[in-house]
TrEMBL record:
Signal peptide: none annotated. Belongs to the peptidase M15 family. One of its GO terms (biological process) is proteolysis. Keywords: Cell wall biogenesis/degradation, Hydrolase, Metal-binding, Metalloprotease, Protease, Signal, Zinc. Its cofactor is Zn(2+). GO terms for molecular function: metal ion binding; metallopeptidase activity. Pathway: Cell wall biogenesis; cell wall polysaccharide biosynthesis. Gene3D superfamilies: 3.30.1380.10. This is Murein endopeptidase K. PANTHER family: OUTER MEMBRANE PROTEIN, PTHR37425.
């Protein structure tokens, strides 16, 4: 009697076992972000205008156009009142940061989008303002989180490895952007 082996079934069983083994290696917080069916929420307060916005988003989805429009207005250059569509990748980074830190506290926005004129003016007055800043491309933000040590924010952002991370302890903020992974 000849026995036939179903190789297709074995492939699927092996793939399933490998997947289970791989998820066992993920940190529990990473699994939570993948497996949750509840939306995550972000509360962002612009410290320059006093405006704030709370929005929800399901993990693994993008900010919808209406939310992005509201967020871009919140992130506007408060000096010139100019607005540019903010890179949604920043909000993905913030959601991941909240999960990593295990907090849902207000994010205090210090600087979001900056018009080129504003950036050039700041370059003339302050050191450390980049000529081609990611702020002028609507791909950066400077912030802190209410009640969370700045060094903890920086360390968590470094673990995420999702763009640039600048640490400004004396000025009390962390810079993140959606450019290449780098740190200063």
């Amino acid at each position: 009697m000849t026995k036939t082996i179903n190789t297709e079934r074995r492939k699927w069983l092996t793939l399933g076992a490998l997947t289970l083994g791989a998820t066992a290696l993920l940190p529990k917080k990473s699994l939570a972000i993948v497996s949750t069916d509840r939306p995550q929420s972000l509360m962002i307060k612009n410290i320059n205008t006093g405006e704030s916005l709370k929005f929800e988003m399901f993990p693994q989805q993008h900010v919808d156009q209406h939310q992005l429009s509201d967020l871009s207005y919140l992130f506007r250059d408060h000096r010139s009142e100019k607005t540019k569509t903010i890179d949604p990748g920043l909000f993905d980074q913030l959601f991941r940061l909240q999960v990593l830190l295990g907090v849902q506290k207000p994010i205090l926005l210090i600087s979001g989008y900056r018009a080129k004129e504003t950036n050039n003016s700041m370059r003339g007055k302050k050191r450390g303002v980049a000529k081609d800043s990611y702020h002028t491309k609507a791909q950066a933000m400077d912030f802190r989180i209410e009640g969370v040590q700045l060094s903890n924010i920086r360390n968590a952002m470094l673990k995420i490895k999702a763009g640039g991370v600048g640490y400004y302890a004396k000025s009390n903020f962390v810079h993140i952007d959606t450019g290449p992974v780098r740190t200063w």
